[in-house]
């Protein structure tokens, strides 16, 4: 396993297992499978409704807690200082742990300044080893970073071969914040797994499209958390440390970047109305 060192000295696996859209009923089994395969970083969130399953798997895995890296996120409806404080403790209860390794604001809506203050307190109290944000575009990221006491350690944003976040990555690097990818496979959009560039480069190394795409991001210094409910796919996604892409191949994959989201834009009023509305539920 390769690691990145966050801005406060905490080491984080560059490859983890994400449980977004994993049914709560099978989350425990999936996380146990992932840990058995070798994953030590697990990414969940309040909005995924499967923190309980992650917590059960952590307890049953037999792996010492200090060897695991657990991430969760505060949802929009729990935004604001008081609500966030309560929700953080509730997440720890569900995860059956005294601390999380990384605590993020899930979306830049509602009172995320109040949320961040609660997270800073959690960080100072040892309830979180590191704190950061998710889905913060450069403008809001810079704004928040300028006025908080603890610089975000991570910003988790949509990042894959079609949306490589080149400009955002440079800004995060300037502020000492680690970029982390959600959706490293773009959920298969744009005929992802049949992409001729990724297929050709993968075949040269005896690797799949998925492995090639993950290796590209890892070599770019991006933390990735691919999700699968199938153990054989977990194994495949984990086996990306035994080959290196040449500069030529890296440049070829860089050309796939469209600079646009495959999902949504926080600059779109309808998207903002939808996400902001979730904060009232």
TrEMBL record:
On whether Oxidoreductase is a keyword of this UniProt record, the answer is yes
Question: Which key words tag this protein in UniProt?
Answer: NADP, Oxidoreductase
Q: Which domain of life is it from?
A: Bacteria
Where are its TM segments located? none
Q: For the NADP-dependent oxidoreductase domain, which residue ranges apply?
A: 21-257
Family according to the record: Belongs to the aldo/keto reductase family.
PANTHER family in the record, alphabetically? 2,5-DIKETO-D-GLUCONIC ACID REDUCTASE (PTHR43827), NADP-DEPENDENT OXIDOREDUCTASE DOMAIN-CONTAINING PROTEIN (PTHR43827:SF3)
The name this protein goes by in its record: Aldo/keto reductase
Organism ancestry: Bacteria, Bacillati, Bacillota, Clostridia, Eubacteriales
């Amino acid at each position: 396993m390769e690691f990145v060192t966050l801005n406060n000295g905490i080491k984080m696996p560059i490859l983890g297992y994400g449980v977004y859209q994993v049914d709560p009923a099978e989350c425990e089994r999936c996380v146990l499978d992932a840990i058995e395969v070798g994953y030590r970083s697990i990414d969940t969130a309040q909005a995924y409704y499967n923190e309980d399953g992650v917590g059960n798997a952590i307890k049953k895995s037999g792996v010492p807690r200090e060897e695991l890296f657990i991430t969760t996120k505060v949802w929009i409806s729990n935004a604001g200082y008081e609500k966030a404080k309560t929700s953080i403790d509730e997440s720890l209860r569900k995860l059956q742990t005294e601390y999380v390794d990384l605590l993020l604001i899930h979306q830049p809506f509602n009172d995320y300044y109040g949320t961040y203050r609660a997270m800073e307190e959690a960080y100072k109290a040892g309830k979180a080893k590191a704190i950061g944000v998710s889905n913060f575009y450069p403008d809001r990221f810079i704004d928040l970073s300028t006025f908080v006491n603890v610089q975000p350690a991570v910003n988790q944003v949509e990042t894959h071969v079609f949306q490589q976040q080149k400009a955002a990555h440079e800004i995060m690097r300037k502020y000492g914040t680690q970029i982390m990818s959600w959706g490293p496979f773009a959920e298969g959009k744009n005929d992802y797994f049949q992409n001729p560039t990724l297929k050709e480069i993968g075949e040269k190394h005896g690797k799949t499209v998925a492995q090639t795409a993950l290796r590209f991001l890892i070599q770019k210094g991006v933390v990735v958390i691919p999700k699968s409910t199938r153990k054989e796919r977990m194994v495949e996604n984990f086996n990306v440390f035994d080959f290196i892409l040449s500069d030529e191949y890296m440049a070829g994959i860089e050309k796939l970047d469209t600079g646009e989201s495959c999902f949504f834009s926080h600059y779109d009023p309808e998207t903002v109305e939808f996400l902001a509305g979730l904060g009232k539920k």
